[in-house]
Amino acid sequence: MLKIEHIGIAVKSISYSSVLYEKILGVPSYKQEEVSAEGVITEFFKAGEDKIELLEATAADSPIARFIEKKGEGIHHIAFAVDNIYDEMKRLKNEGFTLLSDVPRRGADNKLICFVHPKDASGVLIELCQEII
Which residues cross the membrane (predicted)? Predict the structure, then answer.
């Protein structure tokens, strides 16, 4: 693991929350994109070295919609940057962690991603991120 890549926050409305986070962080977002495979619209903010990702569901049965229905808006996941997502997935699997996919998927912000089940990480959903080169 190289560093915390970003913190993902589930929101009901990107348009509302974007204005809020612009005020909090004092910077505009640098990217908004839809990841249709995940049923989500994302928006990214960067303040110094730190990044925040806002996540809004695009479908009522998407993971973000289910999360908000169950827990309300708030921190959804912590993402860690990795050099080689395949090696990290193998290492974590060998350490006994449950991965939510067998192979990485294409995520937002030009990343390959994989999630570690929160039951294996004290209730925290962990995302592994590798920059797509």
Answer: none
CA distance 79 to 115: 9
Q: What radius of gyration do the chain's Cα atoms show?
A: 14
CA neighbor of 35 nearest in space, from 106, 103, 131: 106
User: Is residue 91 very low, low, confident or very high in pLDDT (cuts 50, 70, 90)?
Assistant: very high
Q: Is the pLDDT of residue 102 over 90?
A: yes
Taking every pair of C-alpha atoms in the chain, what is the biggest distance, in angstroms?
43
Write the CB contacts of 114 (distance below 8 Å, at least 6 apart in sequence): 85, 88, 89, 99, 100, 101, 103, 104, 105, 127, 128
Tell whether pTM > 0.90. Answer: yes
